Amino acid sequence: MNYFSKIIGTGSAFPERIMTNHDFENFVETSDEWIRTRTGIQTRRIADHSKGEFTSTLALKAARNAIEMANIPADQIELIIIGTVTPDSLMPTTANLIQAALGATKAFSFDLQSACSGFLYGLSIADQYIRTGMVKTALVIGAETLSTLINWQDRGTCVLFGDGAGAALLTRTTETNHSILGTKLYSDGSKGDILKIPHGGSKYPHYLPEYQHKLHSIHMQGSEVFKLAVRNMIDASLAVLSDHGLTPEDVDYFFFHQANMRILDMCMKTLKVPKEKTWINLDKYGNTSAATLPVCLDEAWRAKVIKPGDLILMATFGGGVTWASGLIRL
Ligand code: COA
Fold it and tell me: For residue 221, is pLDDT > 90?
């Protein structure tokens, strides 16, 4: 018997607080006009610690929404993966916190660190477990509170990111016409310097004299990231399509990582994707890293813009650097 994975539920969650571009004008040299025209971002959500908004609580809300849509008991879930670079703590994992809160007692769970590619990496891993028959139902989450890793004095990065979470619930199927058709995952550590969080790990722990708090935050060479994100998302999209003898014209709907409107425009232009065939929420949420793709999927699904049978293509690019694509027949 050949097994495949089918998405049966999606969910998303955001902190309450909305931060506008104008808010940044109070503490860095920037303007609403610069941020809007150079990035397409207008607002982003920022977690409020005092209201209990952490990566785990956002992830839990998104997971509960996905489980509710799928209408299955949480104890049927056998695997939980969270793509995040902002776990609540290093131990226990945030995935374990979710496992306990959901009462998913049969699930093994782990956090996965591949920055903005976290959701597609997680989806691919869960798909492999389901295809081999080891797991029947899996929960994949992308959740971040990047606001905790932002250098609020660095105008080149602080305006770009936001907090949020998205989730997808997968289950085993034998029908290929409603399943994840394929995923492609890529890494290139030799370019890791262009988007990194240099301090705060085992090389520069907080107690060493060399440790600098301002290096325990996102450091980015914006234009290098920009060029690589465009090229790699396009290449990854074409690669997963070519694996299945398909072209961009065969795709019903596209989901690209939400980092910069100009990156999205270049991907759409090269792949000849009309704007009405892609979901864009970058203007509202900014770049929420691993959360962007599952949130887009959830929003488009709930808005009935995508429907069972549609061919969906997803592509992402993240720090470190990582990138990925996925082809799904809904
Ligand atoms: N407000 C005003 N000016 C800003 C600014 C801000 N928020 N951020 C940067 N600038 C300035 C720079 O300091 C620079 O000034 P200078 O010429 O005096 O040195 C100028 O704008 C141009 O900077 P540059 O980096 O060339 O701008 P850009 O057009 O490439 O846009 C990014 C910068 C960050 C928006 C863009 O490079 C980008 O989006 N990169 C990809 C980011 C990304 O996707 N990251 C996550 C990937 S997962």
Answer: yes
**pLDDT for the residue 150:** 96
Determine the average pLDDT of the residues in 84-108: 98
180 pLDDT more than 90: yes
Token pair 């722990």 is at which residue? 205
Nearest CA to ligand 1 atom 16: 156
Residues with CB under 6 A from ligand 1: 30, 34-35, 38-39, 116, 155-156, 159, 195, 220, 222-223, 225-226, 229, 259-260, 263, 287, 317-318
Domains with residue ranges and CATH for the chain:
4-176 (3.40.47.10), 180-329 (3.40.47.10)
**pTM over cut 0.85:** yes
Mean pLDDT of 148-172: 97
Q: Does residue 187 contact residue 321 with C-beta atoms inside 8 Å?
A: yes
Most ligand 1 atoms within 8 A of CB, residue of 157, 196, 260 to mutate: 260
DSSP letters spanning 33-62: HHHHHHH---EEE---GGGT--HHHHHHHH
Whole-number Å distance between alpha carbons of 163 and 183: 26
**Per-state percent for the chain, helix, strand, coil, to nearest 5:** 40, 25, 35
At residue 176, the pLDDT reads 87
**Residues designated catalytic:** 116, 257, 287
Q: At what angle do helices 55-70 and 94-102 cross, to 10 degrees?
A: 50
In ligand 1, which atom is closest to the CA atom of 156?
8
Residue of 226, 287, 321 with the most ligand 1 atoms within 8 Å of its CB, for mutation:
226
Share of the chain above pLDDT 70, in %: 100
Residue 166's φ and ψ, nearest 5 degrees, are -140, 155
| Cα 330 from Cα 317, distance rounded (Å) | 23
Cα of 211 to ligand 1 centre, how many Å?
Answer: 26
Render 83-140 in DSSP notation, one character per residue: E-SS-S-SSS-HHHHHHHHHT-TT-EEEEE--GGGHHHHHHHHHHHHHHTTS-SEEEE
